[in-house]
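Good morning C.,

I know you're traveling, so I'll keep this short. The sequence:
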Amino acid sequence: MSHIVVIGAGQAGASLVAKLRNAGFDGEITLIGAETAPPYQRPPLSKAYLLGEMELERLYLRPESFYDDQNITLRLGTKVDAIDATTREVVIGDERLAYDQLAITTGSTPRQLPASIGGSLEGVHVVRTLDDVDRMEPEVSPGRRVLIIGGGYIGLEAAAVAAKKGLKVTLVEMADRILQRVAAPETSDYFRALHRAHGVEILEGVGLERLVGDTRVTGAILSDGTELELDFAIVGVGIAPDTALAESAGLVLDNGIKTDAQGRTSDPAIWAAGDCASFPYRGTRIRLESVPNAIDQAEVVARNMLGESVDYVAKPWFWSDQYDVKLQIAGLNSGYDNIVTRPGDNAGSVSYWYYQGDTLLAVDAMNDPRAYMVGKRLIEGGKSPAKEAVADPAVELKTLLK
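The tokens, ready to paste straight into the viewer:
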């Protein structure tokens, strides 16, 4: 009987094994996870879960009983030491687990601060896993002082939760502006104003010199000489694809594990999906860090493992929740050269439309789900409405689809 092994029990891994069964695979399936919790949603961790608005069980992607019911062997708290691609075995301690096909869905790992600048002090947190957030939760209480390092979406979401909890929040971003790597200046301006209205101190163009403290962080020295007293710190300086196992197995890497359009790696028996995988997209190669990508890509890989020949056609979209603002992003904005602003119907709602010449690339919609949905359909359909029509609030959004 054929045995499929999946390493990485996050969103992609859980989606992949469910799709295998749904598509009629009746062989053996083993899903291996390094964490002790069953597969769970990550986005609510730093928001609803940390705020105490979501119970642990509601984080789980499926009830624990699902895996037994579907005859999927779920091995949690299990560290894979190596992949032996020659013998087609996964090495776990002294055990060697044979596979016919293998999928790597190891996701990504948060970038850490070096120990030389205080990264290993107690009270310095990252936000990635359930354990990370459970460790941080006792720190998040009113009146305490937190420094957030990094003005990307992870840092801003953490700042919003801390501010809502009544903490004194300072956020530092080394680049000229928050969200510089991922968004237009207009989107940066919107979120800077939002956070400042909630009492967050945002310092841009300012880096962290070092965190200070004996065993536990008590303060920070910034690149401009500013000294801060702290109770704890949150590091949100990005994530890196988790490729260690793939690399040691001799697989080709290219900003993640390099796959073809169907999710196959340089070894025909090994596949990859989710945050850890890079794949062809419109003449280039990308890696997407998002829940929708993890699900869609994993399901395509499952079909291809079962003998179909389906290319994964990414439809990039993302979201971020901060205070009472829901940001929804459709498309990828890389290469844009102009921005069109469209006011929303309500106070605080607006959308920014990214164009390269006359070609629509992406839309950032703040509390404007209709602009997001129309923009997404346009981008996926390869259509670019006239910029004048987009900018004119008198023009009905849905007429742009015609």
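Safe travels,
E.
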